[in-house]
Amino acid sequence: MNIDDSLLTKLEKLSSLKIGDDKREEIKNQLSEILNFVDILNELDLDDLKAVVSSIEGGTRFRDDISIKSEVVDVILKNAPARNDHFFVVPKIIE
Question: Residues near 1 by Cβ (< 8 Å), separated by ≥ 6?
Fold first, then answer.
């Protein structure tokens, strides 16, 4: 599939991105390559394959949710210029 200027303009609008004039040709070529690759993938016959959710038989094993006391907060906050309990104190920026 070939990406033309009108399609690229539409994609710009949908993605809320602005593509510079110097990058338009490069982006069009890259998008065309991606779509060509997807077309190749669509040619694969996958009708006889079963969908796989996990590579581990029986699903993912769960671990026990155990709380562990960590000193990370104290180590980080000891370098803070200002703190209050376990929080950084910063200047107010919103009125």
Answer: 32, 35, 36, 39
HEC profile of 32-77: HHHHHHHHHHHCCCCCCCCCCCCCCCCCCCCCCCCCCCCCHHHHHH
What residue ranges of the chain have pLDDT lower than 70? none
Residues 25, 2 contacting (CB under 8 angstroms): no
Burial 28-50 (b: 16+ CB within 10 A, else e): beebeeeeeeeeeeeeeeeeeee
The whole model's pTM is what? 0.50
pLDDT at 41: 92
Residue 81 DSSP label: S
